[in-house]
Amino acid sequence: MVASGERIVYSKNECQAFSNVVPRWCNWNGYFPELQLPHSNGRAMGTIIAYIVGACLVTLVMMCLGELSVHEPHTSSFHNYATKYIHPSVGFVVAWLYWLTWTVALGSQLVTMAILMQRWFTGIPLWI
């Protein structure tokens, strides 16, 4: 346990472990400024494994949604499957979280893209 006001010092091995666990874009965008490491200290294998695991999960979810859409071929959103097969409250939460994901994620991606574009197009205002 660390006393208040005491600073935590990480070893080189701990920093390399953090760079494998925490996605690189978190460090590059400054979400975790205390973990910013030189890029030569990072290991690419952890990132590759994380992308492979993520791709497998996305593939499984898409296959399940494909099976559900073949079983019930009607036009609707996938939250209806959660409502019917799990519970109505789960379908409600899925629908609202899907909407929230699109609104928050799209807005934050547009702001991030605008900030990054300021490096090359300095004369254009940020809000455009």
UniProtKB/TrEMBL annotation:
| Stored Pfam families | AA_permease
Signal sequence: where? none
Q: Which UniProt keywords apply?
A: Amino-acid transport, Membrane, Transmembrane, Transmembrane helix, Transport
InterPro entries with a match to the protein in the record: AA-permease/SLC12A_dom (IPR004841)
* Location relative to the cell: Membrane
Organism listed in the record? Enterococcus camelliae
Going by the entry's taxonomy, the superkingdom of the source organism is recorded as Bacteria
Membrane-crossing residue ranges in chain numbering? 48-70, 90-116
Q: Which residues form the Amino acid permease/ SLC12A domain?
A: 41-128
Gene3D superfamilies, A to Z: Amino acid/polyamine transporter I (1.20.1740.10)
Q: What is its main location?
A: membrane
Q: How does it sit in the membrane?
A: Multi-pass membrane protein
Q: What is this protein called?
A: Amino acid permease/ SLC12A domain-containing protein
